[in-house]
Amino acid sequence: MGIRVNLDHLLLDRRMTLTELAERVDVTIVNLSILKTNKAKAIRFSTLEALCRALKCQPGELLEYVDKK
Amino acid sequence: MKAIGRFSIASVLSVVLGFFRFAIAMGMVATAIGLAVLAFVPAPRVTVTVPVSFRLDNPSPIRGQTGFGFNFLTETDLAREEAKSRVDHVGGALRIPDASKRVIALNALVLMAILAFTAFVVDQLRAVLRTLIHGNPFVPDNARRIQRIGLAVIVGEIARAALVFVENYYAMTHVAIAGLTFDDWPRLSFTTIGYGLIILIIAEVFGTGTRLDEEQSLTI
């Protein structure tokens, strides 16, 4: 996948667990896991907004473009 | 009766197809045993029936029934009806009594191929039905299975026409029947091929639907 989700790094920096984040953003742990393991096909703006609010970050910190070459 | 889930039409069909699949397997085993035994015994006195298609040299009019005795046709009506309906191309079966070992073996091999082909189609259908029973039919494998069924319908029709043509050729060179000529070209059913193409289109639509469903389920 060309777009990588840096959720694990941000969670580590914020000393937050996936369960805590799931409660804050109202997204299931299963779906956050999909996001964390880069298996997601797309992310809704509303989810991105909730994640950025909860993690106090910018979308650019959460998402990163990785050249597959 | 619901179409998806347990105790649905799909589950009933699955059970029916399960029995059918078992019968096919038994048929294949019986044919294989018969073929193996045939190699060691003299030609048995069996009648082999093969499908053939032919046309009548002098198409004869069909003499219709008047129907429950109420619809009396005049001679003029009958003449007109006769002019409309004539037997022209006919499909039938040719029975070969006391067939040679080679003919029996060849037909047994053809039967095995038909059974194997049918088993393949039934397996694809059963796999689709299983996903329906489990309530999750939108999987990429189902699109491929439906595509295989569509291709099988087309290939099956071409193979059937080719088989009848080969049997016709055999009949032409071995049998002479006054008043009829065996077809010397394969008679394809374009309707069946059309059905196959429709199934292929449905498979494409299903595949697109499956991709959308997958994308939707992986959108967080």
Describe the structure.
Chain A has 69 residues and is mainly α. Helix content of chain A is 55%, strand content 9%. Chain A contains five helices and two strands. In chain A, strands 1-2 form a two-stranded antiparallel sheet. Chain A starts with a strand and ends with a strand. The mean pLDDT of chain A is 89. Chain B is mainly alpha-helical and 220 residues long. Chain B contains five helices and three strands; from the N terminus they run H-E-H-E-H-H-E-H. Chain B has a three-stranded antiparallel β-sheet with strand order 2-1-3. In chain B, helix 3 packs antiparallel against helix 4. The longest helix of chain B is centred in the last third of the chain and has 35 residues. Chain B starts with 8 loop residues before the first helix and ends with a helix. Chains A and B meet through helix 3 of A and loops of B.
